[in-house]
Each structure stands twice: as structure tokens, then as C-alpha cells.
Amino acid sequence: MLAAAFREAGFEDFRFMARLLLADALGVEPGEIVLNPDREIGSAMEALGPALARALSGEPLTRIAGRRSFYGRDFRVTPDVLDPRPETELLVEEMLKRLAGQRSPRLLDLGTGSGAILLTLLAEIPQATGVAVDVSPAALAVARANAEALGVANRVAFHEEDLFAGVIGLFDAILSNPPYIPSAELAGLEPAVRDFDPALALDGGLDGLDFYRRIAAGARAFLAPGGWLGVEVGAGQADDVSALFGAAGFHDFFVRTDLAGHARHVFCRG
Predict the structure, then answer these.
(1) What's the CA gap between 213 and 144, in Å, rounded?
(2) Residues 197, 129 contacting (CB under 8 angstroms)
(3) pTM over 0.85
(4) Phi-psi category of 101—alpha, beta or left, where left has phi over 0 and alpha has psi -120 to 50?
(5) Considering the domain boundaries, does residue 72 fall inside one?
(6) Contact criterion met (CB below 8 Å) for 227 and 201
(7) What is the b/e burial string over 30-67, where b = at least 16 CB atoms within 10 angstroms of the residue's CB?
(8) 92 and 50, same structural domain?
């Protein structure tokens, strides 16, 4: 029934979507649906109707389920936080390479949202500690819940601040996936982003570069010697962001492309 509904609505990945929706209603992992296709689903039928209607209206399945798999771990997501995308996993992957060999690095995540970036790094580096900064108290509540669920809450401090305000000390890595959509382009975003991600996490100002300017102006004061700054950027922004950071005194630039070949992350040292 579910797969047929998605197929009739024109979804190419209709079987995958049906499996995710059913797994969420049953409270199991999607793989269990494949391994046990004959399981009883009566208990889930009441929840499936509204969930199916939401999915067919265009609401992302991660929003319906309230969770996103990121770097092999489950993260709670709510309307208050950006739904972390697979390409952001590459930011984590690349920073892990740069932190290799450091026993207890100190990390700073600007605009943490769900906490996916920082909390994943803390989970991957058992002796690391971090500071998660976000201007939204609702987003920080989500990040705190995710930190507790992942067992890293004792190694992270949460700050309700605007970027570097209130931040103290030096960090071996500063990371951010800041808002980078030009304000005039917000209305033209695909509905799954425009209608379900918080505008606070999307709007990067007139040219989309407002937050990179602010990061460039403040980050060097908080980077430990040899430390790395790593940010995600929007389509076509890597050169402009690199130029902003270069003008602020950063060096040793590296640009990581995503799986589609787009320049997606900028790394540099201060």
C-alpha cells in the first residue's frame, strides 16, 4: 500500500520511502523491514495515515521521523534545526584527518544546530572536548539531547551566543556550516528546504557571505597554533570565501569537493 501510494505520486525511490516510513511507525531500523517483510504491522497503521499524508505533501521523511542518520549515528532533528545533509559528513571526515594524532583536541562549532558536526567529532575522538555555540535556545536544546543520547554530554559546553561572543580560550579546530543562501534566493529554494529548514539557518545576507565575513574577522583569535578552520560553503562560494579568509591572514588552504564534484568545504590555518 505504502509503496504503491508513493509510486502513484511520482516518487522514483518509492520502495525506499515506504520502507523508511514504515520503519519509523514501527520504531525499528529500516533494515529490519527488509529482513522481516512478513512482520505484523497492525500497531503502526494508525500512525501511518497522517505520516503518509505528510510525506505525499512534500515533507521530508527525516522531518516526519524527527531523526537523521549522520556519519552512522542517529540525530534528533526538529523544526528548530537544519536537517544535516550527507555532504556535511565530508566536513567531519576531512577534519578528522587534520586532527589525526592529537589525543585531546579542543573543538569549537559555530552555529551548532542539531550538533551533528561537533558531536560526531567528539564521538570519533574519545578524548576530545568541545564548545557548541548557537544563537537559538531551541536549537541548543536539540543539540543537548543529541549529546546525551550519544554519551558525549560530559565533554561539550553549550553557549547561547552569537558566534564568538562569550567564547574563551584556544581551539585546535573551529568548524561551521553557517547560513549561506543569499536572502533574495530563499523564496526560490526547493520546498523541502524552504518550508522545513529554519530561515535562521539558511539566510546568509545579501550575497550569502555575511557569516563568513564575521568568521574571518574573529576566528584567528581563537585558533591554537597550527589549528584548522573548516567551513561548509554554498555553490560557487568557495573562491569568495577563500579570498575573505586569505585577506584575514589565513593560509594553507584546502578545498574539498563533494561527491558531485562541487567545491563544498574550505579548510585553512590561521
Answers:
(1) 28
(2) no
(3) yes
(4) left
(5) no
(6) no
(7) eeebeeeeeeeeeebeeebeebbeebeeebbbbbbbeb
(8) no
- Which domain-ending residue is among 13, 34, 65? 65
Which of 15, 34, 65 is the C-terminal boundary of a domain?
65
Q: What residue type is 80 in one-letter code?
A: D
116 and 232 belong to one structural domain: yes
132-187 pLDDT, tens digit per residue, is: 999 999 999 999 999 999 999 999 999 999 999 989 999 999 999 999 999 999 99
Answer yes or no: do 119 and 20 share one domain: no
Which structural domain range is residue 26 located in?
2-65
Total number of domains constituting the chain: 2
Q: Give yes or no: residues 61 and 85 share one domain.
A: no
Report if residue 76 sits inside a domain: no
In this structure, what C-alpha cell is assigned to residue 102?
592529537
34-43, 50-59, 134-143, 238-247: least confident range:
34-43
Angstrom CA distances, 73 to 89, 93, 147, 245, 253, stand at: 11, 14, 11, 32, 30
Segment 182-230, tens digit of pLDDT: 999 999 999 989 999 999 999 999 999 999 999 999 999 999 999 999 9
Instruction: Give the C-alpha separation, 36 to 201, whole Å.
Output: 39
Question: Do 196 and 227 sit in the same domain of this protein?
Answer: yes
pLDDT at 66: 85
